[in-house]
Amino acid sequence: MPFGEIVCGSPGSGKSTYCYGKYQLLTALARPISVVNLDPANERIPYPCAIDISALITLKDVMDEHGLGPNGGMLYCMEYLEENYDWLEERLKELGPDAYILFDLPGQVELSTNHESVKRIIQRLAKSGFRLTAVHLCDAHYVTDATKYISVLLLSLRTMLHLELPHINVLSKVDLIAQYGDLDFNLDFYTEVQDLSYLENALSAASPRYAALNMAITSLIEDYGLVGFETLAVEDKASMLNLCRVIDRATGYVFVPPAGSDAPPGAVEEGDKPLASRPNAYALFSSAAGPIKGPGSDVRDVQERWIDAREEWDAYQNREWRREGEAVRDEAARREGIRRREGTK
Ligand SMILES: Nc1nc2c(ncn2[C@@H]2O[C@H](COP(=O)(O)OP(=O)(O)O)[C@@H](O)[C@H]2O)c(=O)[nH]1
Ligand SMILES: [Mg+2]
After folding, report:
1. How many domains does the chain have?
2. Contact at 8 Å (CB) between 113 and 158?
3. Are residues 67 and 154 in the same domain?
4. Under DSSP, is residue 81 helix (H, G, I), strand (E, B) or coil?
5. Does residue 5's CB lie within 6 angstroms of at least one atom of ligand 1?
C-alpha cells in the first residue's frame, strides 16, 4: 500500500526544502522515499526527483503559448495535469506498491483552498490506494503579528476543509522566529490555538475598525477546534524526527510492519541487518505507535531551543559537532595507522 504526503503552503514557506530534508532523513533511516515535483515553476529542485511535472508541462511554455500570467498559467498547468492524470499514474506505478511519496505542490494558495484540480487529483490518488496526509507549511514569522496569525489560522482551516485529508499544519522555519522580535505569548499559545481572546488587545490596536470582526473570526476558529500546529526547523534532526512521527501516525504508516519482519510497525529493515541493531531507527519507530514523545516533541522544548536559550543551544551544538568531527578524524587516523602497519609487515 503506497503512502504519501501532500506538501502544500504559500510560496517560500519551505516546501521543497522540507521535501529534501525528509528525503535525506528517511534515506539515512533506510526507509523508502521518493519525491514527486508537481510545481511546474520549480526551477531549482534540491532533491532527486522521482517524477517531475516539467516532463509533462512547464509554466513558462504555458505562459508563452497561451499568453497567460503566472497565476493563470499555474491553474492551467494543474488542470492539464488533472486531464493527463494517466501520465502521473503510470509513473507512480513504476515506484512500486510500497512507495512512500512526497508530493511537492506549487505555492499558489488557491490550489489548496478553492481550485478543484488538485483536490480531484488527490481524490484519484486516494482511490488508487494511496494513504495520504496533507502537510501544510506556514512560515513561523506569521505568529509574531496578531493579524497575520489570524490569517494563517484561516488559511490553515480553509485548506483543511478543502483538501479533506488527515491534515498537519506546521510552523516552518521556527529557527528564525527570534529574528522577528519578541512574541507576545509563549510558542505553545500559538501552536495549540487555545484561548484566542488574549489576542484582543493586539488585534484592536492593529485594526481598530475591524476589531469586532477579528474577534468573531477568532471565536469561530476556536469553536471548531480544528487548527493546531507542529513546528519545524529543517536542519534540526530532533525537529524533523518529531514531525516524521506525527505524520506517520496521521498516514497510518506506523501500523505497517515491514514484510517478513518482527521489527516494530513503521520500521524497515536494511538488507539482512536487523533494524534493532540500528538504535536511532529503532528508537524512532518503536515509540511511533505509542504516545508521541522524544526530543523536540514538546513545544516548550522548541521554545527553549529557538527562542529562550538559542545562543546556549547553538554553542552546545557546535561543541557536539566539533567533538563528533574529532572522533571521526581520530577513528580515520587509527584505521590509517593499522593499514600502514599491516602494509609494512
Ligand atoms: N532557516 C530556515 N530556512 C528555511 C527552512 N526551510 C526553508 N528555508 C528557506 O526558505 C526559503 C524558501 O524555501 P523553499 O523550500 O524554496 O520554499 P517553497 O517555495 O515553499 O518550496 C529557502 O531559502 C530555504 O532555504 C528552515 O527550516 N529554516
Ligand atoms: Mg518549492
Report:
1. 2
2. yes
3. yes
4. helix
5. no
